[in-house]
Amino acid sequence: MADQAFPIPGSLDATPSRGAALLEWLHSWVVTVDHKKLGILYIVYALFFLLVGGAEALAIRIQLVIANNHFVSPELYNELFTMHGTTMVFLVGMPILFGFANYLVPLMIGARDMAFPRLNAFSFWMTAFGGLFLYFSFIGGFGLYGMGSAPDVGWFAYAPLTAQAFSPGHNTDYWALALIVSGFGTLGTAINIVATIISMRCRGMTLLRMPLFAWLMLVVSGLTLITITPLTAAQIMLLIDRYLGGHFFDTQAGGSAVVWIHFFWIFGHPEVYVLVLPAFAIANEIIPTFSRKAIFGYPAMVAASVGIAFVSVSVWAHHMFTVGMTSVSNAFFVLSTMMVGIPTGIKIFNWIATMWGGRIRFATPMLFCTAFVFQFLIAGLTGIMLSVAPLDWQLHNSYFVIAHFHYVLVGAIIFCIFAAIYYWYPKATGRVLSEKLGKWHFWLFFFGFHLTFDTMHFVGFLGMPRSIYTYEADRGWSTLNFWISMGGLIQAIAVLIFAWNLIDSYLHGKEAGNDPWDAWTLEWSTPSPPPAYNFAEDPVVRSRRPLWDLKHPQDPDWKYER
Amino acid sequence: MSTIPIFADENWRLPSRGRVGMFSLIIGESAIFTIFVVAYVYYIGRSTYGPTPQILSIPIFNTICLLSSSLTVWMAEHAIARGRIRVFGVWWALTMTLGIIFLVGTAKEWARLIGHEGLTIRTNLFGTTFYSLVGLHATHVVVGLIMLSLVMLFTLLGRVGQRHAERIQVLSLYWHFVDAVWVVVFTVVYLLGR
Lengths: 562, 194
Known about the structure:
The complex is a heterodimer.
Chain A: H1 18-30, H2 35-64, H3 74-108, H4 117-136, E1 146-149, H5 171-199, H6 212-243, H7 257-291, H8 298-312, H9 327-339, H10 341-355, H11 364-387, H12 389-395, H13 399-429, E2 431-432, H14 435-461, H15 478-508, E3 510-511, H16 546-551
Antiparallel strand pairs in A: 2-3
Chain B: H1 17-43, H2 60-81, H3 85-115, H4 125-156, H5 165-192
């Protein structure tokens, strides 16, 4: 280190100039292997792309706000919805959840860092490079004419549209290569989280004393290992087809486009659970804290999470009822999809039972989590509707499906992510986010969300297909589309308030102290923000709520837990 | 209260993170191979033109070499666990030699297929699936050999000792995995698919 050409010259007593100090600060973030810094990097990276992906969604909504609109060109419209989907899943959903896992898992299990800190940094920078590479497509490839060569084949990139003949240029290559690169980063982080949780727990932290957050992250990371890799494999096949003249998805040579659909959804459906299980993890921590009760049915929650992971790998073809499978496969995937309802139902009942009889404090994190429980219920119910093959034949690729999965992705996951940021921001920065702005954020976002996505179900029933560039005025979709777009606008305003809250509270927020919410997991025993080494001495744990034991020595949990 | 063992976990021991990490990697890699194997199996006999799998000859010598390298690497693990660095180096070098023989054998096979049978990755669907599956495995052998040769280099420089036994074992897990995958690839490509 000492002989590096890094710009901190001079003797020890010389105060470095502002520029040098800034450079050193930036340098410390680039070379860091600290799980907390990497976690923050992941989250900041994801929030940045949340704004980008949100802007793309707004452009889509402006295009659809009235019939026969020409706000963007049809080519750009294809790029917008492709990039919106790809961004939100791969550059927002996965990184932000891994960011929280990175930041919180070692703190919660009483470890000083992840199992492989350098692999951790490597994974983050792979992910970051993948995201930047994907967005380089707007200016790279065949240049800036038109709107560059951003991917325009839909986020699921169905064959044969991705074949060299139908997708000339580099649009599809950007999609495949960027996701392969960030996929390796994801794989590295998943390996790291599994190894951390299995091998780095502090003394006394048995598996059944782990916070549910850590349990779900273990399940998610295990699921990621077998989820992201099939996508990587399929994308390698796609690149072989495109660049080495292969025939995997080339129907004229005996290949099959349907095989791509299978491979994509073998990744794509478990991916939904990779995204939503961390949302459950967040709710599992926040709901008990703000209900002032221990989580109801801890073992059932663990079992349900593992159950969801198992069931989720056998449901992929419910995305394919309209492809034309045999009735036996249709029946199998109808039933397996409905089975997902059992473990998720257990979870919803457990959250409600946790709140039941609790002394609920409706701080902003709890507001988001409460909304999450009910929105996730509705998302699950429309999911059961869509799992019925005959109904799916009617509704497939309509806005009803869009509404359904946005209810999961926004109504459940984004709501929980907001809750998590309000909940753990004090830990990471030492300042509490403004409750007043938080309430504004919640209510505006809640209202905007329902205006947009409730309405979307109906426009789907009326037959509006997904991904269409525009529609005729006499279809009867105009009014509904107008309100959907207005809801999007309201959500955008709420997100801007949130962004302002993040900045303003960082500078002027109330001091948080170690434990602003009177919570029970180990991360709240450390200072805010925690020191680089996390714990001055390795903690010893005797129950699921170590801080409760500490705060109530006369009535500790370990008296009752077995 | 006294029934609760407070520090019953005097010997608080958790699995080694290296092993857990490597096993996780192996699970992920298995998923990649599964997709390629499924594609291979699904596309057997679906080529509409060109050479068929009947042109393949069974690489018995190759297979014997690769599978016995699992044995030699296991002997190397044992040697280093007992601190016999010289013996370790010999077994390790033997493992590498067997791996290289396997690669040379694959190269000869491919040269024959490309030169005499006219089968390339773009010839037909069989060529695409064959070269990508066998090539994916060969890529893993190459990666394994790179890691093995790094350890070999450090051994020759005298930097490897008994304290590295666990790391060597973790690395060997990867090599065992590459061998195990070959059993699957061999069965699917050369026995069932021919």
